[in-house]
Fold this protein.
Amino acid sequence: DVKVTQSSRYLVKRTGEKVFLECVQDMDHENMFWYRQDPGLGLRLIYFSYDVKMKEKGDIPEGYSVSREKKERFSLILESASTNQTSMYLCASSFRAGQYFGPGTRLTVT
Amino acid sequence: GESVGLHLPTLSVQEGDNSIINCAYSNSASDYFIWYKQESGKGPQFIIDIRSNMDKRQGQRVTVLLNKTVKHLSLQIAATQPGDSAVYFCAENGGGTSYGKLTFGQGTILTVHP
């Protein structure tokens, strides 16, 4: 079975803090994705990566950056957290076709 | 832009009934579709997929039907159980888009009453 893990299930941070969300997959997938999910807005793509050290902006990259130093790990960075970044963050990985998701990180910025 | 959508935002059924969840897609170039199940507070779970060269695919208690003529996708759940209560949403690949990117529908809330 594909396994995608995320470093935290719940996270509370203060405005202005730098936040790191980690995602690890164990299936040697080429592609990895970061989404945020908000009520009424569905899944929105923040960034994705198709190879180590490669990244592409998604639909809502502002306020975020990513890092992919190893194939199995894809990190999402909030340089200076703001309250409007309170959300559920979902990581996914894929090899050509269907995406497999992690359990999500519920981030609250106060 | 093209998008994936759902006809019904909510669906309530009795335990044991069959459920049908619908999805309309507008990108005729899409050649790969997936159904996901998302329980409250959890990440989406891959249920079943189908390629455009098929019109039906069956899994355990689930069947996906694809009608390319009218650009419609449906998920049928047989003998629905309370544990099936979740949000279900479809996704499509937009036809050859690179890197496995998907477009997701908004979701249908399925509630199963005991």
The two ends of chain B are 41 Å apart (CA to CA). Chain B has no helices and eleven strands. Chain B touches chain A at residues 32, 34, 36, 41-46, 49, 89, 91, 93, 98-102, 104-107 (CB under 8 Å). The mean pLDDT of chain B is 88.
